[in-house]
Amino acid sequence: MAPTVLIIVALRLWPLVLGVNFSFTGDGARNGAAVGLLVLLLPVAVAIPGLLATSIYLRVPGHRVYRGVYFFPAVLSPVIVGAIFNLLLAYDGPLNTLLGGVGLGPVDWLGDPDVAIFAVVGVHVWATFGMALVVFLAGFAALDPSLLDAAKVDGASLPQTIWHVIIPGLSRTIQFVFVTTMIGMLTSMFGLLFVMTSGGPEASTYLPEYYIWVQQGQFNQPALASAASTALFLIMLVVGLAQIGVLRRAGRES
Amino acid sequence: MAGRRLTKWFVAVPMAALALATVYPLLFTANVAMKTRREYVLDRFSLSGALRWENIASAWTSVGMSRYFLNSAIVVTCSVALLLLFGSMAGFALARLRFRGSSVLFLGCLAALFIPFQVIMIPLTRVMADAGLVDTYPGLVLAYVAQFLPFTVFLMTSYYSTVPAEIVDAARIDGNTLYGVYWRIMLPLGRPALLSVGVLNALFCWNDVLISLLMMPSAENRTLMVGVTSLRGQYSDDIPVFASGVLIAAVPVLVVYLFLQRQIADGVTAGATKG
C-alpha cells in the first residue's frame, strides 16, 4: 500500500499542485510554491487552533481571557493587519531591530522573493487562527461531557483522550474548519497582498485572487480574469469535496 | 491528578506568550502613533514621551481620513439597515409561511452562499457600470447587500424556524395583516438574531477592501479601508502619521468587539453548527 500512496502523491498529486500553481504565477514569474505551500500549511493551520481550543476547553489557567484575545485579530480588516505588519516587518523596522539585538542579520521580510510569501501567509495565519478557534469551541460546547468523564474515570492520558474522544467527537467541526480555512487561504488574502506586497517582489506573492484582480484592474483583461476565477471556483469545489470525502472515510475507520 | 495540573501550567505559558503576540502589534501601532518622527527613528520600542494627538489630528484632516471615515459610515449604515430589513422579511417568509416555490427559493439562497466573490466580481463590475452605479453610494450599498444577503437570509430563516408557529397563527386570528405580523411580532422577536447578524454584517462591510476598490474608483469616494491602503504610498516616510491613520480605522472595530464579542462569535459559529 505504501508504494502506491507514495507514487500517487509524488507523481500525480504534486504535479497537479504545481500545475495549478504555474497557472497562477504568470509567464516570466518565479515558480514560487505559492499554492502548494498553502496546501502543505493547511493541516498546521487547522491543528494549532484545534489544540488551543482543546486547552481552553480543558480549563487551562486563564482560559476565560484567551478566547477573547485570540479571536480579536480575526475581526480586524486584512488592510489594517497588513498595514500594521508593514510597520513591524519593514527592513529598518522593529522586528529586524530585535533580531539584530540577538545577533541575527536583518531579513528583508517583504522584499526577498524567497521570504515574502512565508511572511504574508504567516501574517494571514496570525490574523485568522482565532476564527477557527471559536468554531472549535462551538464544537466542544456540543460535545457530550460524559464521554470525557468516562475517559477520566478509565485513567486515559491527555493524548489518549484527544485521540480517542475529542477528535472523533469533533469530526464534523474539523471537516468544517478544514474547508473554510482552505477557502480562506485561496480567497481572502487579497487585502493582505494588496497592502503588504502588491504581488511582488518578482511576482512571488501572486495568489489566485490577486492575480484575478490584477488581470482585470491593471491590464484590463476581463476574459482572462474570468477564466482564472472560474478555474479557482472549480478548484475550490473539487478540493473541498475531496477533503470532506477523505475525512468522512477516516472518521468511519477509526 | 497533580500531573495533570502540572501539564495545564506547562501549556498555559506558551498560550500566554501567544496572547501577547496577538495584542502586541496593535499596542505597538498605538504607541508609534503617539510618537514624534524623531522619537520613532531613535528608538522603535520605547514608550512615547507624551500622549501626542497631533498625529491623529493630522491624519484626520490633512490626509483626508475624515472624508473616508464618513464615506464608510454612510455606506455601512445603509447596507446593514437594508440587509436586516430584507433578511428578516425573507427569513420570516421562508421559515413560517408556506407558499409555492418557497423551498426552491431557500435552496437558491443557499447556493448563492457558496459562490465566492471572485467568480462574480468581473461580471458584477460590468453590470454595475452598465447601470451607471459605479462610483456612487447606492452602487456600493447595493453591491454589499447583494454580497451578504444570502448569509443574512440563511441565519434569519434558521432563527425564525425556532419561533413557535402558534404565535403567528394567533396573531393572524387576532386580525393582523401579514405585514402587521411581521412588523409587530416577528421583527421584535428577532432582536437577538438581528443584533448578531447586524454586527457581523457591519464588520464585513467596514473591513471590505476588494468590493469597494471595484465600485468606488475615484479618490474622494474612497472608503476608510481603501484610504488606509493609499496611506502607505503617501506617508511612507512619516511613520507616526501612517500609524495614526491605521489606528483611526481600527478603533471602531475595537470598540464594537469589546462590547459585542459574544454576538460576533455566535454569528461566526452559527454557520458551522447548523450547516
UniProtKB/TrEMBL annotation, chain A:
Q: Which GO terms describe its biological process?
A: transmembrane transport
Q: Give the keywords, sorted.
A: Cell membrane, Membrane, Sugar transport, Transmembrane, Transmembrane helix, Transport
Which InterPro entries does this entry report, sorted A to Z?
ABC_transporter_permease (IPR051393), MetI-like (IPR000515), MetI-like_sf (IPR035906)
The answer to keyword Isomerase applying to this record is no
Q: How does it sit in the membrane?
A: Multi-pass membrane protein
Q: Note whether Signal occurs among the keywords.
A: no
Its main subcellular localisation, reduced to a broad class, is membrane
* Family matches, as PROSITE patterns: ABC_TM1 (PS50928)
Report which superkingdom the organism of origin falls in: Bacteria
Cellular compartment(s)? Cell membrane
Q: Where is the ABC transmembrane type-1 domain?
A: 29-243
Report the family membership: Belongs to the binding-protein-dependent transport system permease family.
Of the GO CC terms on this record, one is:
plasma membrane
Q: Where are the transmembrane segments?
A: 35-58, 70-91, 115-143, 176-196, 223-247
| Record's protein name | Multiple sugar transport system permease protein
UniProtKB/TrEMBL annotation, chain B:
Q: Where are the transmembrane segments?
A: 9-28, 68-92, 104-124, 136-156, 193-219, 239-260
Q: DNA-binding as a keyword?
A: no
PROSITE patterns hit by this protein: ABC_TM1 (PS50928)
- State the source organism's domain of life: Bacteria
Q: Which Pfam families match?
A: BPD_transp_1
The record's Gene Ontology cellular component field reads:
plasma membrane
Any keyword Transmembrane?
A: yes
Q: Which residues form the ABC transmembrane type-1 domain?
A: 69-260
| GO aspect biological process, one term | transmembrane transport
Q: Which family does it belong to?
A: Belongs to the binding-protein-dependent transport system permease family.
Indicate what this protein is called per its UniProt record.
Multiple sugar transport system permease protein
* Naturally occurring in which organism (per UniProt): Saccharothrix ecbatanensis
Organism lineage: Bacteria, Bacillati, Actinomycetota, Actinomycetes, Pseudonocardiales
